[in-house]
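PROTEIN FOLDING TASK:
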Amino acid sequence: MKLTRQEEAVLTALQRGVEPVERPFCNMPLPEDAVVDLLQRAQAEGLIRRFGGVFDARRLGYKSVLCAVDIDESQMEQTAEMIAAHPGVTHCYERRPVVGGREYPVLWFTLALLHDRFDEGLAQMQMQLGAKRVLLLPALRRFKIDVVFDLRTQERDETFPGAAAPASAQSRLTESFESFTEDERAIVRALEGNLAVSARPFDAAAGQLGIPVSVLLARLNDWRRKGVLRRVGVILYHREAGFKANGMCVWPVEGDIVAAGRRVASRPEVTHCYQRPRLPGFPFDLYAMIHTGSPAETKALFDKITAACGLPDGELFISLREFKKSSMHYFQE
């Protein structure tokens, strides 16, 4: 998709998020009707995955875990297909280590379920996987989650006029969440998909819900303040945007992991940064995701971050195959 510099800037800003107001596209570098036209073209040409709400799953009452599975190459596709079919799985990748020297699991996925169904659902998944060794790597601290790709430079964009401020990330993750009424759950379900692309994108959702748009916007703004709603914005197909190679960086941290996590999270190229538990045979506790245009660039960026942040003995896992990548569908149980 051919874009002008202004259009690239607007799509970058829209990933950061818009304010939940009746006409959210007024404060952009392009006129409101041009922003709507740009969004419609980007959707039609497959650049945008969706335009809608991005929620904090924990605040909605969900538990999630990153999993890695030891598996024979001959069973890869069959097992990945089984995992990807689970409605609680949002991501499933084949990831291979680059630095090398040790054998690590290569099939990675995330599983998220309501807190009161999580243990049972995880046990069922492990039973389906049989005797295969499964690493369970829940997030202990979140230092950053901020997936915004700057289409102007293929680098990360930290601020831009007209974009809503991102929700602040928690340092230590807790089980804290609210109870949601069925009406509130309906709002989540309406926002988790695609909003209508128009000058007033919240009107159609309010009509679907049978409530005034002012009531919907008040709820969304309240949830933003509480951290339930991280943003309402654009999510790209990052490969179509030129970010074809993503890598999971892992390091063992000796000493102050909070300081190390903040150093890594401050890098504009990093989209996600977490502390996870060290496990036998997998001695890493600081994780970060990076995206570039090629595996070679991803490796070079990993080396750069490793040196700049003083984190030796790390490993980079390049994503070779994407079996599933989808947004979470909440309250569908």
Observations:
- The longest helix spans residues 115-129.
- The radius of gyration is 20 Å.
- The first strand starts at residue 48 and ends at 55.
- The CA atoms of residues 108 and 299 lie 19 Å apart.
